[in-house]
């Protein structure tokens, strides 16, 4: 399964990079999203995908064993990453909106002409 | 007394910075009042001069500095005293002189500001014990002299001259910094005193050649040695008081000072001797030679300075006690007469309106006091008794005679240069002060009696000191002996006198003077010849070549930068991806611990694979679709797909967060994109293929890295700790949540801050209306 997920991540990166290299800003933003998702997956994979138990401590127990449940640490990291990604996404999109409103183009090669419309 | 001296140096700096405040208070007296501090320092140094015991130095720790290695520690010994007295004494006279010379100039505040700071920097350089501090003061003199040389910044010539001086001396400064760091690393200390005490000598070290090269470039640029001599004549574009100061005691002499300071550490090797003697000898000769062909009094003086600097460098290169002694005395001699002559030139320029020796004449009658001061200085320059210059020249000849292996080179060069110096002195004396033949008498703007007495004080004082020291050179002996001890690290007896008996050296002197007078007699044909040669060398006019070099360098840098900083984000990214790809792949292939994780491999699960396939199709569709909405929705497919994947592997918190975040992003996206046009195909087919190849490469690289990463075994995963303590310490059963809000609560606080900032950013972006602003304009 690890091999499949690793290939999946590689494909996501390939698509993300391809989108990053486009001239359209929207596609560039899409590329950033794809790559950030793929990166989250890398972190997730590092915790292992052999176990699929929920990382909860049972209602009777005081401790949990890592034997059965998914590693909680990567999850915590990814959770932070997703939320921050949301913040970035909102900001980029607002920026993009303003940019288009000011310049009337979404071609990055026109970026030098921001001041004239 | 030592502390007082250092406090006074500090006061000079403070005063320099306060000039803008002080000048409105002191008005036209600024120069004279500012001069009091260097004079006070001169007094303090004089007391030290007569009280400093032999073979001792005084180290003063100020406890002020940036690092333990970089403390502003000061060192008072014979060398720094001799240089310090020249800098402060002539500095005071120059300030007083400027008070009159600059009286009608605009920008006097700026003038005094930089002049006083320059003086402080030079004093700091002379007294510094720490090599890094010495370097800082060295650079400070370069920077302040840049502003002084370019004082008339509204004219083209001074601007160019000052830039040239700055570029060259700053280049030398960089070399000095490297040399200082090298010395510091090799010796383990930046303190001159420690270097002296421990007797470090780098002559045999394998890095010696590099250190010597760096130091000699620093010295050659600062002290205008061949082939870097060309900036100095340009520097005379500065107002005369500045020329007087730069040439006599400061700036160009910093290189000489550095050589003397480093002589115990670096000196005495074959390389040191041959390089310095050669460079100094050439500089000495061409300086005097070019001076013969000049008509402008200041230019003549500038070229003779080059010659004098060459003499000093050559003497230090010889590295015998006779030659070092000669170099020290010659430094004093040169400072005294050159400062005096520049001041005389300034007075003549002010009072007649010209510096052309062909137009001037007969000043001895009309301006007797100025003339006598000038003539005394000229006597010193040509090395005639009873001036100190005579002793200086005798010592120089003595030193040259005493090194038999090189005397065949240095004696002819030295005698030739000195002959020309004598000829120049006689020429200047004759043309300016005596001759009225074939010339209209030059009109004075005001008779000399009406000139302010203090205006004349500077050159007169310097001339008298030169005369006095010539008569009674014994005063210098003790301090010279002390200086010699720290330059040569051996005890040398100093015995100075005008009359040394009838010997080989005296014969050489008589011969030199006779030949000099002979050159003067045949000045017309010789002058013509010199000018022809100068005209011929003008095609190799170094300042122009230097300017061309700088210009070419700038245009090269411009083209180069345009190529690298082209402004297309995708080419930046391509460079970045391609470089990373090559490096990572190389690293992956050079390590050989397998490709595929053997242990901990989970079996294939069909339902997961289906989810992945669906998500992948979403992304691929997002790439190719032309409709914005479809692109966003298909991207949503990816997001939700990953969310499901998290769910399948038991990460519930992740799944729900991803789901919510994806939804919010899609909503914002739709709101924004609603206003945008459809995607246009902006790139050519060729570039799409190229991008696809790069993208595929990156994909392969990432897959390999992810697989490889599975081999990394972390010794003690911290997750164990969380699993055990989440309930007991954090009182929560959802371990992920406890990590976020308890164990790593500060991270979460940071995350909230980022979100807050992003929200503020979005808010202000939407509020801030660029369009309105533009239309209002």
UniProtKB/TrEMBL annotation, chain A:
InterPro entries reported in the protein's UniProt record: CPA3_antiporter_subunitC, NUOK/Mnh_C1-like
Membrane topology, as annotated: Multi-pass membrane protein
Pfam families xrefs: Oxidored_q2
GO cellular component, one term: plasma membrane
Keyword tags: Cell membrane, Membrane, Transmembrane, Transmembrane helix
Gene3D superfamilies per the UniProt record, alphabetical: 1.10.287.3510
Transmembrane segments: 6-21, 28-49, 76-95
Annotated localization: Cell membrane
UniProt main location, coarse: membrane
PANTHER family the record matches: ANTIPORTER SUBUNIT MNHC2-RELATED
Entry similarity comment: Belongs to the CPA3 antiporters (TC 2.A.63) subunit C family.
Protein's UniProt name: Cation:proton antiporter
Organism of origin: Marinilabilia rubra
Phylogenetic placement of the source organism: Bacteria, Pseudomonadati, Bacteroidota, Bacteroidia, Marinilabiliales
Automatic annotation (TrEMBL), chain B:
GO molecular function: antiporter activity
Keyword field contains Transcription regulation: no
TM regions (residue ranges): 6-26, 33-52, 72-97, 109-127, 133-151, 163-188, 208-232, 244-262, 274-293, 300-318, 324-348, 369-388, 408-434, 455-476, 496-522, 571-589, 604-624, 631-649, 655-677, 689-707, 752-770
MrpA C-terminal/MbhD domain mapped to chain residues: 614-677
Domain NADH-Ubiquinone oxidoreductase (complex I) chain 5 N-terminal: 70-112
Alphabetical keyword list: Antiport, Cell membrane, Ion transport, Membrane, Transmembrane, Transmembrane helix, Transport
Any GO BP: monoatomic ion transport
NADH:quinone oxidoreductase/Mrp antiporter transmembrane domain location: 128-406
Cell location: Cell membrane; Membrane
Membrane topology summary: Multi-pass membrane protein
Any one of the GO CC terms: plasma membrane
Stretches assigned to the MrpA C-terminal/MbhE domain: 688-767
InterPro entries for the chain: CPA3_Na-H_Antiporter_A (IPR050616), MrpA_C/MbhD (IPR025383), MrpA_C/MbhE (IPR046806), ND/Mrp_TM (IPR001750), Proton_antipo_N (IPR001516)
Pfam families referenced in this protein's UniProt entry, alphabetically: MbhD, MbhE, Proton_antipo_M, Proton_antipo_N
Protein name listed in UniProt: pH regulation protein AB
